[in-house]
């Protein structure tokens, strides 16, 4: 696949200019007016295979039927900051088939999850726009309706073979290492990926990654250790650089949770 072009960072807009981030028929457009930002958001039911491109429009004629929102300010400036970022809730990923990890064994999975489009007037400001490129469906993950959390559960793959995951400009890949230190076989049908705690990196081809997630099923209880590496993942695609920090920060990169809150 050809190297993806950088579509994020500080973006300059002249007064009345319209910029469009397009992915096939999927479009996000932003216009700068004197005292407001106008944002169009044309969503799709299915996922586009196109890379993201950025172009300018002279008129809004092609956006007439697209839903839009207005964001008022005292006076607009000529620069905005656009960032890709991980989802604002955990994401449930499913392997193509159930995985059975024998006692004392481990497996490395690769999860591809959709990104959100974040617009700020500057990198330190609160977001004006925070929308997904692909709108996932809501899902509940947990051992019961009383215990668990609201997640997203659509457009997300989990693969043992990294080569089976297509790299796209609106997705990030997370390496997940699952260790079974229990005396029983660990069956995995679903994985609860802690997306809000993951930072976003890009490689030399501008493909997106997150740091590695490590889940260890301990032998002495039904608890599991969740570890989020605080460095970029290792990759054959060249050096990684940080694009966006995680939505949520934690004092610790190690957590202890019920195994049923992480794997199902």
Question: What does the model show?
Answer:
The chain has 264 residues and is mostly beta strands. The relative contact order is 0.17. The radius of gyration is 20 Å and the shape is elongated. The model has no long low-confidence stretch (mean pLDDT 88). The chain folds into two domains: 76 residues, no CATH class; 153 residues, no CATH class. Strands 8, 10, 15, 16, 18, 19, 20, 21, 22, 23 and 24 form an eleven-stranded mixed beta sheet that branches. It is built from no helices and 24 strands.
- In total, how many beta strands? 24
The N- and C-terminal alpha carbons lie at a distance of 34 Å
| Multimerization status | single chain
Q: Give the DSSP E fraction (strand runs of 2 or more residues).
A: over 45%
Spell the H/E element sequence. EEEEEEEEEEEEEEEEEEEEEEEE
Helix content: under 10%
Rounded radius of gyration (Å):
20 Å
- Our count of helices gives 0
Helix/strand structural class = mainly beta
User: Which stretches are poorly predicted, pLDDT < 50 over at least 5 residues?
Assistant: none
Q: Which sheet architecture does the biggest sheet show? A: 11 strands, mixed
Q: How many structural domains are formed by the residues?
A: 2
Mean of pLDDT: 88
Inertia-based shape: elongated
